[in-house]
Amino acid sequence: MKKLVLAFALFGGIFNLSAQEEEEEQKQGWTKEGNIALLFNQSAFNEEWTGGGTSNIAGNFLFDYDFNYLKNDFTWDNKLLLDYGITKQRSDEFARKTSDRLEFNSIAGKQVQESNWFYSLFLNFRTQITKGYKFGEDPESGQTTRTEYTNFLSPAYLQFGPGMMWKKSENLYLNLAPATGRMVFVDKDFTSGPDYVDGDYFGVDAEKAMRFEFGASVSGYAQFNIIENVTMENLINLYSNYLEDPQNVDIDYTMNMKMKINDYLSTNLIFQAIYDDNAVKGFQIREVFGLGFNYGF
């Protein structure tokens, strides 16, 4: 419950700040907008450097594409996100991922009279692109070892359901879906074997490739300008499974702050916090900060 209150408080503050923005006149028909960003971080030390440190290089690729439709009292918003990052330290045998996310969000709404409320139907799909590994150390040789733990579509999450949406604009909305179906897809190879225990791999039972859940979903989106040339984008998704431990609310919050230098260069700060007790018993936190090359279309 504390996690749920914290998430609502965090997004609530953003929501209230965004609500102060003047509503822009919305265009009828299709509107499309995309952005590609490449972030780089690098550190280098020579052999004589006595202050400590390891030479490393890191990169992050971001792709964000929105294609939205508006016709009188009908609205349909779609967002495709791709976020992939990798880092390599000189002393490490393997490169390691810092982020790997492929996500598609779609929400359609039918306006309730002359108000900001809509009858809604939403769909969310999320997975990763490449293999993920758990790293360890060989007790005899001392070398780094890695074991494949995840892959493309393993896991993959599909959520969908009807609800009610409060929408101020394309840049500010909150969707409530109390009857949401969720399916978790995995590669059956990860749930097979005599030592596998039901639920150990993202909640999926032994010899199964899918887990079905039914619960409530809350999702929100807010994008606004903090000051000139500084834009903050926020996405939050909450989910509670009625069928098992409904008090354990899954949380997925992402903040992307872009500080524009010129039309092609910016400094980006990405922060993400995830809580899913079927994956890890605790919060997963990541933060990426770097100089970026941006291309808008």
From TrEMBL:
Q: Does the keyword Signal apply?
A: yes
Q: Which InterPro entries match?
A: DUF3078
What lineage is on file?
Bacteria, Pseudomonadati, Bacteroidota, Flavobacteriia, Flavobacteriales
What species does this protein belong to? Salegentibacter salinarum
Name of the molecule in the record: DUF3078 domain-containing protein
Q: Where is the signal peptide?
A: 1-19
Q: Which Pfam families match?
A: DUF3078
Q: What keywords were assigned to this record? A: Signal
